[in-house]
Amino acid sequence: xxxxxxxxxxxxxxxxxxxxxxxxxxxxxxxxxxxxxxxxxxxxxxxxxxxxxxxxxxxxxxxxxxxxxxxxxxxxxxxxx
Length: 81
Hints:
Layout: H1 16-29, E1 35-39, H2 52-59, E2 63-67, E3 72-76
Helix pairs in contact: 1-2
């Protein structure tokens, strides 16, 4: 089985994150497990409220990866049993 991959590319402040915030819950409702990868051109702070990676998690992504020239971070949602 192949893994479906979606890619959203656009200029800064063009609405990519807003679109992704709307797409993630729909994919989750359809039964997909969603992970996102975000490129940060100028470095990043970890898990800052309101930033794109935080917004991806809030939308329902089970994993969020942020990568810049010198750093990489991965957030994974853990289920409580």
